[in-house]
TrEMBL record:
The chain crosses the membrane at residues 57-80, 108-129. Its main location: membrane. InterPro entries: NDR1-like. One of its GO terms (cellular component) is membrane. Residues 1-13 have a biased composition (Basic and acidic residues). The lineage of its organism: Eukaryota, Viridiplantae, Streptophyta, Embryophyta, Tracheophyta. Keywords: Membrane, Transmembrane, Transmembrane helix. This is Late embryogenesis abundant protein LEA-2 subgroup domain-containing protein.
Length: 270
């Protein structure tokens, strides 16, 4: 009779790892087996219904939206970034400038009033406003200009009409500042009157031309709000004294043009 050879039965722990830990069987990873819950902890699980993926997708969409908004705002700022208008004085004329204190004080003394220092002044300046914005037009309103000397006004503020300019252009205006020839004098301090007489005698007159108002920038349907405008130029004028009353002028005949010495120092605040 042929002998039958039988393999010895497998020991129950034959497939166990050393240290008593159970090995991984194929049945453990079959769908529906008990082993699924054992490994779902390590691989994210199968029973969350996709909720974690939806949250991640929502966060990614919000992040992309915020990034797009930030890039758009940056581009708009670069294109329409704020920039102040420019201001310049290109020519000047002294129409009238003399000390009217003597004649006025005679009248004041007769009336028993205290003497005062008075100056009669009238100028004409060519003022140039520039719009450096290449994509926005500028609108100016409530403009008025005056001339100051040593911090004191030589002329009363002169109203000016509204101005409009296209993008990247300049507009010039030549207002007469002061009451005109023979106009009423302006009260100043005695120190200012004495300093002005000295400067006229030296044929160099430092003045400040001030322009006040408001400005707004317009680009198509977009209208920015109004901004207050404070522009000023410090200029040196070449003048000469005429007659014996302390009168000064820039030249003889016609409109007395006064040469501007050096480059005016101009600034604009908004």
């Amino acid at each position: 009779m042929a002998e039958h050879h039988h393999l010895p039965p497998e020991h129950p722990d034959h497939h166990h790892h050393k240290g008593g830990r159970k090995g991984v069987y194929a049945d453990d990873v079959k769908p529906g087996s008990r082993g699924r819950s054992r490994y779902s902890y390590y691989y994210g699980g199968y029973g969350d219904g996709g909720g974690g993926g939806a949250v991640r997708a929502l966060c990614f969409a919000v992040l992309v939206l915020l990034l797009a908004v930030g890039i758009t705002l940056l581009v708009l700022y670069v294109v329409y970034r704020p920039s102040h208008p420019t201001f310049a004085v290109t020519s000047a004329a002294v129409l009238d400038l003399y000390n009217a204190t003597a004649s006025t004080n005679n009248n004041a003394a007769a009336a028993g009033a205290a003497p005062a220092a008075l100056l009669a002044a009238s100028f004409q300046f060519t003022l140039v406003l520039g719009n450096p914005r290449g994509r926005s037009a500028a609108r100016y309103d409530r403009l008025e200009a005056y001339v100051a000397y040593h911090g004191e006004a030589l002329t009363a503020p002169t109203p000016m009409p509204p101005l409009a300019q296209d993008a990247g252009t300049a507009v010039a205006t030549a207002p007469v500042l002061g009451a005109g020839v023979g106009g009423p004098p302006v009260p100043v301090s005695p120190d200012a009157a004495a300093a002005l007489a000295t400067d006229v005698a030296n044929a160099v007159l430092p003045l400040r031309v001030v322009l006040l108002g408001r400005v707004r920038f317009v680009h198509g349907p977009f209208h920015r709000g109004w901004h207050s405008l404070y522009a000023r130029c410090d200029v040196l004028l070449g003048v000469r004294k005429i007659g014996g009353t302390g009168a000064a002028t820039g030249g003889g005949g016609g409109v007395p043009q006064a040469p501007i010495l050096g480059d005016p120092n101009c600034n604009v605040d908004m």
